[in-house]
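Forum: Protein Structure Q&A
Topic: Joint prediction for protein chains with partners

I've read a bunch of threads here and the consensus seems to be that you should model interacting components together rather than docking separate models afterwards. I'd like to see that in practice. Below is the full input, 322 residues plus whatever partners are listed. Could one of the regulars post the assembled result?
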Amino acid sequence: MADTRWLDEDEQRTWRTFLRAVHLLDSALDRQLRRDSGLPHAYYQALVALSEAPERALTMTELAGLLRSSPSRLSHAVARLEEDGLVRRFKRPGDRRTTIVSLTPEGMEVLREAAPGHVEEVRRVLFDTISREQADRLREISEAMLGALDPGGEAPGRPAS
Amino acid sequence: MADTRWLDEDEQRTWRTFLRAVHLLDSALDRQLRRDSGLPHAYYQALVALSEAPERALTMTELAGLLRSSPSRLSHAVARLEEDGLVRRFKRPGDRRTTIVSLTPEGMEVLREAAPGHVEEVRRVLFDTISREQADRLREISEAMLGALDPGGEAPGRPAS
DNA sequence: CCGGAATACTTGAGAGTTCAACTGTGTTCT
DNA sequence: AGAACACAGTTGAACTCTCAAGTATTCCGG
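Posted by a regular:
Agreed with the consensus. Here's the joint model:
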């Protein structure tokens, strides 16, 4: 660890502006989802991932992988979602280690009800405030970040937010 | 609330890529800071804000404003920082409502020790992975987001990260 | 085919965040 | 002056996330 390569003034401003934007964006989304559907954003994302999976079911490990979540975090989350009846958990036949999580009809319903408001919020805080071209740049930048942060990670999938 | 303006495929990919990048970036920073200094990122930011203030002191309200933090969150945070001896709290003479938080020498020292590693991490996850030009674009995009998220918010300050 | 490593989670404790309610102080209006 | 209101912060409970351990299976080398 030699001398620190401090941030120059431009980098400082960029960094702080970015941090603040991300912080506010995250809070806005989380608050909107909690208010309108009772789910934190992270839990909502879990339901989305399940809804797009074949059979609307995934193993804990698969789901954790998609969400970049620790096993522990996911375990707690799924426990809560199961209590609420939004997902169901059962063992995979033939492998008693593996737990399969599947989205229940109730979970799907909660998702259907939450989605429109969520998408509106995503537009409000992001896509309505930047141009199409800026969005393209943002994606490139995000992909570059993922290079360092998520080596070997596939690009996220396509379907419904 | 008329028909939902769903995200098109490009927007979906951008959104998900961005979300994932931000999530990983945040975790990386938080983990690095907790490991190396025992402070969560939010607490570190509070110390930074104080260190840059005149007299290294701010009122709770001022600090909450700079950090875009709720009064409650800040109150809990400052309570913890005070227990650790990194900040001190006292009432403003002449206004018994107002609490002033000031950075202690110990707090300043913790900051000094944490800063280099933190900056390295910021470089690693952001500035080393994108070009100078992308950084400029990122700042513009972040500023645009802040237009919707933080109406009437001044641009963040300049000094040390 | 047996013992050690790897896999797939789960659990519990400790922190941090949120939300709603509450306390104590200034301000304002009449 | 007095009532109503606004302001500045704090508190407690519920919840979520993290980290370290622990449990239960399955895989693998000798």
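The first helix of chain A runs from residue 9 to 37.
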